Amino acid sequence: MMDRHLRELLNDQFNKELYSAYLYMDFADYYHNRGLHGFGNWYDVQVQEERDHAMLMRAWMLKRGETIELLPIAKPDKTITDDADPLHFALAHEQYVTGLIHTLHDATEVAGDTDSAKFLDWFVKEQVEEEENATSMIERYDKAVADGTLEALDTELKGRRWKAPSLHVDIF
Ligand SMILES: [Fe+2]
Ligand SMILES: [Fe+2]
Predict the structure, then answer these.
(1) What's the CA-to-centroid distance between 71 and ligand 2, angstroms?
(2) Looking at the domain assignment, is residue 129 inside a domain?
(3) Which of 43, 65, 143, 164 is the S-S candidate for 27 at Cβ 3.0 to 4.6 Å?
(4) CA-CA distance, 167 to 62, in Å (whole number)?
(5) pLDDT of 22-81, one tens digit each?
(6) 20 C-alpha to center of ligand 2: Å?
């Protein structure tokens, strides 16, 4: 049996990863409607990654014999008024998620659940990458606008493809 508090936090994180997918879908849709299909593609891949994160949480809970409560997924509440907005919202969101993952990791230590701690190590590393990517997107966008090369950057971003996560959890 998993520690009750830890189980609740994992269940919440599963839901929040799905919310992240929803949020990035909102960003992707914004860019596709603006004709910036490369930026749209970038966030479409983010959607898939967030779904992966949720499914890993789910798999971990099922592996441990826990059930997942399927809570409602919140509606993304960000108002986008400028092409740069989603990039800034994304960085702030990833910084927020990093905090949640650290709280979860702390809870594994309090519960003495070293297996869950090891599972979450992957997410700690993943968040470093997520923040790096989000930061670099802002820098690249700003530079492209300054240099008048936004179209070239958009074309480049069309090349991003989904890759299976490096972490795999066997449920049974
Ligand atoms: Fe995530
Ligand atoms: Fe993320």
Answers:
(1) 19
(2) yes
(3) 43
(4) 16
(5) 999 999 999 999 999 999 999 999 999 999 999 999 999 999 999 999 999 999 999 999
(6) 7
